[in-house]
Design brief:
Blueprint lengths: L7 E5 L3 H12 L3 E5 L12 E4 L1 H10 L2 H5 L3 E3 L1 E6 L4 E6 L3 H4 L3 E5 H15 L2 E3 L4 E6 L6 E5 L4 E4 L1 E4 L8 H4 L6 E13 L13 E5 L2 E8 L3 E9 L9 H5 L1 H12 L4 H7 L8 E7 L7 E2 L2 E3 L14 H19 L3 H37 L14 H5 L3 H4 L5
Parallel strand pairs: 1-2, 1-12, 2-8, 5-14, 12-19
Antiparallel strand pairs: 3-7, 4-7, 5-6, 9-10, 10-11, 13-16, 13-17, 14-15, 15-16, 18-19
């Protein structure tokens, strides 16, 4: 097996974290190959994201911000109402004057499409229908050899697992790691903006906190909007959510049942949803990993940190991870095995420090969503974190902090 070279990097997962990292590494002259299990990246990621200033700052440094701003909707506050449609508060999620960027409402599908196009232009090689199977061999001084379920193999100087919550690459670093279900799912779908009649003196995005549940309306472009709710339910006996996530009839029926408790603000939107957009995600949690690095295998994005799909945190962390790791690798190309190990462990330490604090915010949102999904929920407004430390974070400067 050849002596490892960091000029050749393999990335498993053509999602936001993997593609962002690939684009950055190509910009500094490295050869990058991305492996994606799906047939192509035209599969619809139907969930809606809010990219906050920390994520957008990373996107700008990665060189992909213009593509995202071209398709997203900028805003600075979420309007929070009670069930009587009376204003409770405004939650700041971005501010150009305070944090350098407004927030951006954008679907995950739009992000992935934009990054895929940019990766192609940058010369990133993407192999679809390559389902990762295992790390065959790995050490700190030799190339990483990997295999796929189609019996093909590949060898790279570094392997990055960016393959999501159910990461297969994670098994190399934490073979016994398991996620746990929090008792609620997030339901979401899109509809024509014309179906939503906003209360007086309010605008999108709009959050309603009420004993009947927590409802969130967000803009999608200029013609559409999304609606999202939490729903308490038992997990499938098999533990496999695939069938339920694909069952559009079931998702619509649950939304219909929940909308029946509301007036026309919610019910008019729910009765005219785009069936393709109907989505369900189980809210999962997982203990922090002890390590994101082993030999020449590294984890980023949801593969490295499992956070519930609430609070607008995961996508922004993925962009931070990509920029932080890309910046680190740019300095380690000629560092040798010992220098690589030291550099990656410093990177890991900084990202884990960041994650520990962000995870506390995620817990508060997860608790709120779980309560909102319960039929006996009490009124709850979204928590108001101190946004400065969260939104002003600079992933490159953070690497300068010594352990």
């Amino acid at each position: 097996m050849a002596v490892a070279s960091l000029t050749d990097v393999g990335i498993v997962g053509a999602g936001v974290a993997g593609l962002s990292l690939a684009i950055y590494l190509r910009s500094i002259g490295l050869n990058v190959t991305v492996y994606e299990g799906q047939a192509d990246n035209k599969a619809e990621y139907t969930n809606l994201w809010t990219l906050t200033p920390n994520g957008l700052r990373s996107a700008e440094a990665l060189g992909v911000l213009p593509e995202l701003q071209a398709v997203g909707v900028a805003y600075e506050n979420i309007n929070v109402l009670n069930g009587a449609k009376e204003p409770i508060s405004k939650r700041e999620v971005g501010s150009e004057s305070k944090h350098g960027y407004s927030a951006l409402s954008i679907s995950q599908a739009q992000v992935v499409r934009a990054l895929t196009a940019r990766a192609s232009t940058a010369g990133v090689t993407i192999h679809y229908e390559h389902v990762f199977a295992s790390v065959v061999t790995a050490s700190t001084s030799k190339d990483v050899s990997i295999s796929f379920t189609n019996k093909s193999t590949a060898t790279h100087g570094l392997l990055v697992g960016a393959d999501g919550l159910n990461s297969a690459v994670r098994a190399h670093i934490a073979p016994t790691y398991k996620t746990s279900y929090m008792g609620s799912v997030a339901l979401a779908a899109s509809a024509a903006r014309s179906t939503l009649v906003l209360p007086a003196n309010s605008s999108l995005p709009l959050s309603i906190a009420d004993p009947r549940g927590h409802v969130m309306f967000s803009p999608i472009g200029t013609e559409s909007c999304s609606i999202a709710m939490a729903h308490a339910m038992e997990a499938p006996e098999s533990g496999d959510w695939t069938a339920l996530r694909q069952d559009k009839t079931f998702i619509q029926s649950v939304l219909d049942q929940k909308a029946a408790a509301w007036d026309s603000l919610v019910s008019d939107v729910v009765k005219d949803l785009d069936p393709v957009s109907l989505s369900l995600w189980p809210m999962l949690s997982g203990a922090p990993l002890e390590s994101w690095v082993s030999d020449r295998v590294v984890l980023i994005g949801d593969a490295a940190h499992v956070l519930p799909p609430v609070g607008m945190l995961g996508g922004n962390l993925a962009l931070e991870d990509a920029l932080s790791l890309g910046t680190t690798l740019a300095k380690l190309v000629n560092a040798g095995s010992e220098g690589l190990h030291t550099g990656l462990k410093h990177w890991e330490s900084r990202r884990m420090t960041r994650l520990a604090r962000v995870a506390e915010v995620s817990k508060s949102f997860g608790k709120m969503s779980k309560q909102a999904g319960s039929p006996n929920a009490a009124p709850a407004a979204p928590p108001k974190p101190d946004n400065g430390w969260l939104y002003d974070f600079d992933a490159v400067r953070d690497l300068e902090v010594q352990a």
